[in-house]
Task: inverse folding
């Protein structure tokens, strides 16, 4: 009786371990495949280099602004420009949104957020219209952005918070 129970216990243990192993393998696999592919990463990099060139030629700004792709952003945000208390500027792009349109994220969202970041560099922290002032708009257009609409309801300009996404 005891031996039979022991046998049953080990069989169950084996099944549970095997299930866990498969689960972890699957989870890892899922994460890898949902990561941005190399061609998308290259496109982001090339666009960033291009935006840096425009920022330098049009505004004499040579600051290197980091672009981070995060999967921790709320789904309603495509991107965000953040300025921390210690003056660190980071542009975030929402990884979840890349599934819909890579071109939209790179050609529309990235220049839009980059223009917010340049406003920070210029020391203009205007909260007018959620950061979508006329000056921001002119910078956005100078960066050849396609989404430089001033009347938006995104809250994509974020101040004074650290470890946001
Ligand atoms: Zn914006």
Result:
């Amino acid at each position: 009786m005891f031996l039979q129970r022991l046998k049953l216990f080990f069989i169950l243990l084996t099944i549970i371990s095997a299930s866990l192993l498969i689960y972890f393998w699957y989870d890892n696999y899922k994460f890898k495949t949902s990561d941005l592919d190399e061609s998308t990463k290259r496109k982001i990099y090339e666009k960033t280099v291009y935006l840096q060139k425009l920022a330098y030629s049009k505004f004499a700004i040579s600051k290197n602004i980091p672009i981070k792709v995060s999967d921790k952003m709320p789904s309603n945000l495509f991107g965000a420009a953040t300025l921390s208390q210690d003056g660190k500027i980071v542009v975030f792009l929402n990884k979840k949104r890349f599934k819909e349109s890579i071109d939209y994220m790179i050609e529309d969202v990235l220049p839009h957020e980059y223009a917010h970041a340049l406003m920070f560099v210029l020391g203009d922290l205007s909260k007018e219209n959620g950061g979508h002032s006329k000056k921001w708009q002119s910078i956005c257009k100078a960066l050849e952005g396609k989404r430089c609409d001033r009347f938006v309801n995104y809250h994509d300009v974020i101040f004074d918070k650290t470890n946001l996404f």
